[in-house]
Specification:
Radius of gyration: 16 Å
Keywords: Bacterial flagellum protein export, Cell projection, Cilium, Flagellum, Protein transport, Transport
Number of helices: 3
InterPro entries: T3SS_substrate_exporter (IPR006135), T3SS_substrate_exporter_C (IPR029025)
CATH topology: name from scop
Family: Belongs to the type III secretion exporter family.
Strand content: 5-15%
CATH class: Alpha Beta
Structural class: alpha+beta
Oligomer: single chain
Strand order of the largest sheet: 1-2
Organism: Pseudomonas endophytica
Function: Required for formation of the rod structure in the basal body of the flagellar apparatus. Together with FliI and FliH, may constitute the export apparatus of flagellin.
């Protein structure tokens, strides 16, 4: 039994560094491709995670991300900033990485 493929989805978030990230765009198929093309055009890092997109696509445009996803999105935003060479004030990218326990709880 063949099931049709799920539509390609994309979402866009805006983060000002003060408030929780907000959903600013979402779409399937052609609109998803347009969102991704616009991100590429403006050198916005793209993070692919289909399950996270499905969760966030349920939100309404302008909604802030739910508190349960703060840590996940914070790690993605931090990674995107590092890709662009941006770091928080006082952070030394040359210092040794801090080890932390990543054991699931």
């Amino acid at each position: 039994m063949n099931t049709p493929p799920e539509p390609r989805q994309a979402i866009a978030l805006t983060y000002d560094g003060k408030q929780a990230p907000t959903l600013t765009a979402k779409g399937d198929d052609a609109l998803a491709e347009a969102i991704l093309a616009l991100a590429r055009e403006h050198h916005v890092p793209i993070y692919e995670n289909a399950e996270l997109v499905k969760l966030l696509a349920r939100m309404e445009l302008g909604d802030s991300i739910p508190q349960e996803l703060y840590r996940t999105l914070a790690e993605i935003i931090a990674f995107a900033w590092m890709l662009k060479g941006k770091y928080p004030q006082g952070f030394d990218p040359e210092s040794e990485p801090v080890e932390r326990d990543v054991t699931p709880r």
